[in-house]
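[Q] Does anyone have a clean structure-token version of this?
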Amino acid sequence: VQLVESGGGLVQAGGSLRLSCVASGSTSSIIAMGWYRQAPGKQREVVAGITNDGGSTNYADSVKGRFTISRDNAKNTMYLQMNSLKPNDTAVYYCTARSILGRTAWGQGTQVTVSS
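[A] Here you go.
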């Protein structure tokens, strides 16, 4: 499975961005997808996750009520709608996909910068 993120950029605090992640390759083997982020000098952390059918989602406490994860399986695309962005949301955001074989694929990351 190959993953390509897009949609990052520079936004002012309080603004919104929508990240996209397009999957290709053995997409039929994907059982769950998610978003992680890594801020400068910090460890990578999970942001949100979603099951293959979109029936179950989970969020980090820091983004609950502000971020929404979704997916369009017809387009092999996952989204992260980010609202009410804060400066501490600044990070490189990574898309992940876990396969039925237990392997996890990662995208190359997309930079999100929130100015105060």
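[Q] Thanks! Anything notable?
[A] The longest strand covers residues 30-38.
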